[in-house]
Amino acid sequence: MMSTRPLTQLELLQELSGVAEDNVNRHLSMTKDWNPHDYIPWADGSNYAALGGHDYDPEESKLDEVAKAAMITNLLTEDNLPTYHREIAANFSMDDAWGHWVGRWTAEENRHGIAMRDYLVVTRGVDPVKLEEARMIHMTNGWDPQGKVAQHTEQKMTMLHSVAYVTFQELATRVSHRNTGKVCADPVADKMLQRIAADENLHMIFYRNISAAGLDLVPDQAIRAITDTIKHFEMPGAGMPDFRRNGVLMAKHGIYDLRQHKDEVVMPVLRKWKVFEREDFGPEGERTREELAAFLDELEGAAVKFEEMRDRSLAREAAKKEKAAAKEKAGASA
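The structure assignment produced for this chain is given below.
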């Protein structure tokens, strides 16, 4: 039943508790348990120096720089799970279906970091010492998924902001993991990241359904939360060591960029919610929807601009490589 006034955090949780229970049950009926150790090529491993072996040598890695950047970024993002757990527990509470979801979601997410770290350490894909140093820094800093939103809006943050954020974030992470698997050029890594991406998709569906129920319950309040989230969205890896450098590499090589963010994350979710077809917004909700539409136009323009810049950059790199190869060939035949 639609409310004619904004609801408090407690009221939202109470009104949406039945939806939460239905979606917890739906998730449990669809998810598949899996074991991280089943996705690790243990026979490829060997001891490090502390146990009589040898420490990491960059020549041992089968991953190129793009794959390394993506794997490190994705893993460090998963490592910050305690922050995400704290945030979602604070917004959802640990009561009833909400609490069951918080625990189940956290346990499932924890598998992702376990599998990815074991893979990288066993295969010597990246420097494990630097990886551990980056983990310590990133987890110590933590992550406030609503911090940037709060800086740009006068509206009090509610669980509607939280579920809107994780809806887009889970889908974005799914896209990033899936594309990372492809650039690793290793069927083992690809299979592992496909499995992780499948989890992220189911998690996204849970949050997307909660947000949809919020839109039905308090349309104006929900569209405000959604618009705030989209306008000020940041991936949870922001702030980790080398995030900007790695993010540029990932965007440049099609792992996660503005085009994918808009076309594969933001727009599919908005279409699912029928945001631009709804007729239940009040005057404030209509103004917010217009604000969202204007921002999406800006996002499209930014995506086009980025694609043009990327294409020019990749063309220059290809020309340099071609020139170097021709020079090398000429030198060899001289």
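Interim note for the steering committee: DSSP finds 13 helices and no strands in the chain. The radius of gyration is 22 Å.
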